[in-house]
């Protein structure tokens, strides 16, 4: 079923997607760091300067090579921070002090590899609340919600809502059956014409209604 000609999706390449609203940006056209990968339509809102988003990705050093990966259609609120592996210290040794970074005769005092917990991977359609902090090495599943001020140090399942420090699951957004249905539908991977056609249903409907609509396409 083709999209009617009067249906138009927002421009995914627009830095400021809402006219007259300078506090919100689409991240894909903004970010230049090759270690940050962001999908289309994911946005960041800031009360200060949304164009400074990359400053909130802390300790992302090229000599480590880790990545921040954020999917499509994610909503990221003011103050959200992503702490990468460059901030890690050894903890199973006598001292956690990073002797080697100061050089001189301390230069060889640490192992060749910096402590590395892995990439920080955020799925599609994730909402990250005000002042939340996400740590290196975790995976946040599709459709998850990270509450304001949460500190996320472990994986978050798809469609879980987490809060607190450390963040814990407070509830699931949908039943197991509906979560499985949504993950199978993977609407965020649809062509943008199809998403546009079903935008209202995606925004306000139920998983069953979206599945029915998809079956009729």
From TrEMBL:
One of its GO terms (molecular function) is acyltransferase activity. Gene3D superfamilies: Hexapeptide repeat proteins. Transmembrane segments: none annotated. It holds the Pfam family Hexapep. PANTHER family: ACETYLTRANSFERASE (PTHR43300), ACETYLTRANSFERASE RV3034C-RELATED (PTHR43300:SF11). Belongs to the transferase hexapeptide repeat family. This is Chloramphenicol acetyltransferase. It comes from Pyruvatibacter mobilis.
């Amino acid at each position: 079923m083709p999209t009617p000609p009067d249906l138009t999706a927002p421009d995914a390449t627009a830095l400021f997607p809402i006219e007259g609203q300078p506090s919100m940006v689409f991240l894909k056209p903004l970010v230049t760091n090759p270690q940050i990968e962001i999908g289309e339509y994911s946005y960041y809102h800031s009360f200060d300067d949304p164009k400074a988003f990359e400053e909130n990705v802390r300790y992302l050093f090229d000599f480590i090579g880790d990545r921040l990966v954020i999917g499509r259609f994610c909503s990221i609120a003011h103050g959200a921070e992503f702490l990468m592996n460059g901030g890690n210290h050894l903890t199973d040794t006598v001292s956690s002090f990073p002797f080697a970074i100061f050089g001189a005769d301390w230069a060889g005092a640490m192992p060749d590899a910096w402590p590395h917990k892995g990439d920080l991977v955020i799925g599609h359609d994730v909402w990250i609340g005000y002042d939340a902090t996400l740590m290196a090495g975790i995976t946040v599943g599709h459709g998850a919600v990270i509450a304001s001020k949460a500190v996320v140090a472990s994986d978050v399942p798809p469609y879980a809502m987490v809060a607190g420090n450390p963040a814990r699951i407070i509830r699931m957004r949908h039943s197991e059956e509906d979560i499985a249905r949504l993950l199978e539908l993977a609407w965020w991977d649809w062509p943008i014409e199809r998403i546009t056609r079903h935008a209202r249903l995606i925004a306000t409907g139920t998983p069953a209604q979206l599945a029915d609509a998809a079956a009729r396409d």
